[in-house]
Amino acid sequence: MKRVIAIPLAGGKLSAHFGHSEAFAFISSDDKVIKSLITLDPPEHVPGSFPRWVAEHGATEVIAGGMGPQAVSLFNSFGINVFVGAPPLDPLEIAQLFLDGKLPLQANYCDHDGHHHDAGHHHDHHHQHSQNHSNGHDHRHAD
Fold it and tell me: Which residue has the higher pLDDT, 91 or 142?
């Protein structure tokens, strides 16, 4: 399954404050293999600008340290799954841990339209629509 994981960066590592990101890493993967990483400078931050811009760059997932509910909702409206609570690590390390189902996360907010869920991630997922999956699952975007 192909994915594009977007990770907001500050100082070359995951940014603790999503809206203050200096750059975004876009990591393409096929199954659990990372194929490429590009780093892009985001547009000026105004409410709603980052989700649209990230979607325009083909992201299927966003992994962040923290994010407000409006941004989560906007990402979901573009069909992008949001995972928050990730540690401030190198983006390639974050992506590989995520693909391997080993990234510690506090919560996720998934757009369920067009996504399939299978066993995968070992962490708890807390969905914005009150579903709580204690076994975790992998997110697959319907192609």
Answer: 91
Strand positions, DSSP E, 11-51:
13-14, 23-30, 33-40
Residue with tokens 């200096």: 22
In 85-130, the DSSP E strands lie at 107-109, 115-118, 125-126
Task: Map out the domains of the chain with their CATH numbers.
Answer: 2-141 (3.30.420.130)
Predicted TM-score (pTM) of this structure? 0.77
Q: Measure the CA–CA gap between 96 and 100, rounded to whole angstroms.
A: 6
| Mean pLDDT over each residue of the chain, to the nearest integer | 81
**Between β-strands 33-40 and 23-30, what pairing exists: parallel, antiparallel or unpaired?**
antiparallel
Cα separation, 100 vs 106, whole angstroms: 17
DSSP state at residue 53: H
44-53, 94-103, 124-133 — which is least confidently predicted?
124-133
